[in-house]
Amino acid sequence: MQLSHYLKIYPYEEKPGYLLLYSTKKASMVLLKEDTYQAMKKDTLSASDETLLSKLGMIVPDREEEKRSVFGFFDDLNAKNTGLNITVVLNLDCNFSCIYCYEGDMKGKLYMSGSNADLLIDFIKEKFTKDKKSLLVDFYGGEPLLSVGLIKSISQALKLFTESIGASYGFTLITNGSLFKRQTAEELVPLGLKSVKITLDGPAETHNRCRPFKSGAGSFDAIIRNIKETCDLVKIGIGGNYDRNNYEKFPSLLDYLAKEGLTPDKLYVVKFDPVVNRPKGDISPVDYKGGCVSINEPWLLKAEALLRKEILKSGYNTPKLQPIICMVENRDSYVVNFNGVIYKCPAFIGKKGFEAGDLQTGVTDYTFSYKLNIWKNNKCAGCEYLPLCYGGCRYMTFVRDGNIDKPDCKKAYFDASLETLIKQDIKYRLKAGSH
Predict the structure, then answer these.
(1) What does DSSP say about strands 168-175 and 28-33: parallel, antiparallel, or unpaired?
(2) Fewest CB within 10 angstroms: 45, 77, 112, 340, which?
(3) For residue range 313-364, what is the model confidence (pLDDT) as tens digits?
(4) Where are the alpha helices (DSSP H) in 314-393?
């Protein structure tokens, strides 16, 4: 057996004589005695240790074959996938006026029509081939709850369709939370609502400055009230968008949530992400430049380490480190805009050249426009972080360069942060085995 190409080894100061091993391919970790690690390198492990470390992806029969399997990850995923995931942009309208709005000048009273909703249902039925067993729709906007009637009618039709063929239907909402009242939740849960992601940009003062109602009034209290009224009916996750000037204030939000009774058992996930600046040339109603254009920016490393630690320390769940599955590479994942145009990523909605078809004519070949397999190059092939990255975020590259002609390399980021993030999981959440 050979050491995995995707193995990272770190010192572990809290337990002298041990090393921390992490597989970027399996997202597995283990604390290992130094002499056991030496036996790993020499291929003289005991049978039991070899079995365990092989299962964890730390050792492999053939490193070159392992690299080939990582290169074939999305091919295998697409071949075995029995689910269909559709993101539906119901409108580009909103009752908020966020200072960093990702949709900027695209916003307006633009709503999906009933005829496009019918075409959407037909499109989904066509894509839901005989091998499919589950359908998940992510309703998105704008603010999707401004189109709650359409959510109901689309869900009723899709629930009836999937049940008639022995499959399952569920949907999620990405909402600002201001309209998600108890009555709305009670009406949507029976139709398949599985989870809701609501954005809180830090404590009240910070959030209200970043995400006010169009009137200018603060929205924080209304959102908190709605979360309290609905968290017993449906899984609610909290997201938040920070920038270099306000991220240090976000931990106080966690204290506030717990104090208000929104304890870790009431929220299924909490995750804070940096605001990404708009691409060059985009017209925006505000000149906001407080976000980032690369995950490798030094301030981001500090911000992520702090915020993730505080989330875990407070007992809330946050996503684990694991191989990334970009929806661009997922053959059974599509974004449908309100006007019926199809995309492969919600960040590219309205961006010229990134259309991947429409509801009337179907999906077109997007291999070149979305640079499929852009990570299949010599540089990425030799990178031990490939399973955690797969070429990074195409949109981030687009923001910086105005095109997606090269990968969004995250090596510098992982070099600087992975050890810290893994040790956070050990300290606050995961129990690593030791041998």
Answers:
(1) unpaired
(2) 77
(3) 999 999 988 877 899 999 999 999 999 999 999 999 999 999 999 999 999 9
(4) 378-381, 386-389
SS3 category, 15: coil
User: Rg for the chain (alpha carbons), in Å?
Assistant: 23
> Two tokens at 215?
């009137």
Q: Which residues make up the CATH 3.20.20.70 domain(s) of the chain?
A: 82-313
CB atoms within 10 A of CB 287: 7
Dihedral angle computed from the Cα positions of residues 197, 201, 203 and 204, in that order, rounded to the nearest 10 degrees: -90
Taking CB atoms within 8 Å and a gap of at least 24, the contacts of 425-429 are 425/29, 425/312, 425/320, 425/321, 426/20, 426/29, 427/312, 428/309, 428/312, 428/313, 429/312
Q: Does 434 have pLDDT greater than 50?
A: no
From CA 62, how far away is CA 393, in angstroms rounded?
Answer: 30
Question: Which residue in this structure is represented by tokens 């019918």?
Answer: 118
Record the tokens describing residue 223, joined without a space.
């959102």
Beta strand spans in 319-402 (E): 333-336, 342-343, 357-358, 362-363
Q: How far apart are CA 97 and CA 213, in angstroms?
A: 6
**So what's the pLDDT on residue 435?**
45
184 pLDDT higher than 70: yes
DSSP for residue 95: S
Give buried/exposed letters for 303-330 (b at 16+ CB in 10 A, else e). bbeebbbbbbebebbbeebebeebbbbb
> Is there a contact between 94 and 219 (Cβ–Cβ < 8 Å)?
no
- Whether cis (ω within 30° of 0) applies to the bond prior to 142 is yes
- Residue 333 backbone dihedrals phi, psi, to 5 degrees: -135, 125
pTM over 0.90: yes
Length of the chain counted residue by residue: 435
The token pair at 425 is 């999981």
> What is the arithmetic mean of pLDDT over 161-171?
98
DSSP state of 286: S
Q: What is the pLDDT of residues 67-98, one digit of tens each?
A: 999 999 999 999 999 999 999 999 999 998 88
Whose structure tokens read 């970027």? 24
Q: What share of the chain is helix, strand, coil (3-state, %, to 5)?
A: 40, 20, 45
HEC assignment per residue over 245-279: CCHHHCHHHHHHHHHCCCCCCCCCEEEEEECECCC
> Is residue 288 within 8 Å of 99, Cβ to Cβ?
yes
Q: Please name the residues in contact with 47: beta carbons below 8 A apart, sequence gap of 6 or more.
A: none
Does the structure show a pLDDT above 90 at 291?
A: no
Residue 212 in tokens: 């006010």
Q: Which CATH class is domain 82-313?
A: alpha beta
Return d(Cα 301, Cα 129) in angstroms, integer: 43
Q: Give which of 347, 348, 359, 381 is closest to 72, Cα–Cα.
A: 381
Phi and psi at residue 367, to the nearest 5°: -55, -45
